Amino acid sequence: MSDNTIKASSIKRNDIILKVVIYIVSIIFSIMTLFPFVMMFANAFKSTYEVQQSTLTLWSAHPFQNLAKNWQVINSKDFHPFVGFLNSFIVATCSTVLNVYFSCLTAYAIQAYEWKFRDAFNGMIMAIMMIPGTVTMIGFYQAVYKLGLVNKLSMLILPSIAAPMVVFFMRQYLQASLSMEIVQSARIDGAGEFRIFNQIVIPLMKPAIATQAIFAYVGSWNNLFMPLILLTDKNKKTLPVMISLLNGDIYRTEYGAIYLGLFVTVLPLIVVYAFLSKYIVEGVALGGVKS
């Protein structure tokens, strides 16, 4: 057997070993990621006694009876899942659309146009990124209260227009993916600026938009602090606020109902991620090809 054959065989064996290690590590991390969701789902079908006995078992003696009882418990505690779901859906969807669209528009303006204060504006965005959101929360609440805009879902939606972190991410993506020759050609053909942005730039940014849309949607859906202080009307409360109040009412009494409430909150996020995950994979593949 020649040295080249031995060397090729050794390389192939090392590649197989490396792939096996990668698969094992990936499987372990996948199990660690999915395990909390599986247990949350399983515990929603358990009684309080069964959860107290063991939270790590998947089996329940009467799963559907326990599910019906848990659902009855959370509905008897001033918990309106459909109202909370609708409010959370409106807030999360509208804020995500505004967040992503105006962030893309701002990033495109910074990247595609030459104007006097462009660098200063970009530096201001970077500086705002360093300011914690909680620092401005007191002033924001005072302004909302004085304007009489408490219990308005719009106050949870409109602030999402200004998202410095998303603007920064979108500009970084445009620097690698946007060719100004395409923009110039569209201008020569007579296309307006908004038509160029909506029909050329936006499709190019689908992977970046999908990635940031997931983060924005999850952040808006799980937002607890702002809705908790701005929404006092029970018909305006979002689902996480209702779940937090529910947990306070039935804590240490109905564990199965708590897990069911958490599962109801998390389920829409799983659906959104499943819908947009393919675009994230496309973005990773695109970045790998360009690098």
The CATH level-2 architecture of the largest domain is identified as: Orthogonal Bundle
Distance between the termini: 39 Å
What amount of the residues lies in strands?
Answer: under 5%
For the record, what CATH class of the largest domain applies? Mainly Alpha
Structural class: mainly alpha
Number of strands: 0
Walk me through what this model shows.
77% of the residues lie in helices and 0% in strands. It has 291 residues and is mainly α. The protein folds into two domains: 61 residues; 216 residues, MetI-like (MetI-like fold), CATH 1.10.3720.10. α4 crosses α8, α4 packs antiparallel against α11 and α4 crosses α13. The C terminus is likely disordered.
Give a short summary of the structure.
The chain is mostly helical.
Search tags:
single chain; 291 residues; mainly alpha; MetI-like fold; 14 helices; flat; disordered C terminus
Task: Give me the secondary-structure topology.
Blueprint: H1 3-43, H2 48-53, H3 63-75, H4 81-112, H5 118-129, H6 137-146, H7 154-157, H8 164-177, H9 180-188, H10 193-204, H11 206-222, H12 225-230, H13 239-250, H14 255-290
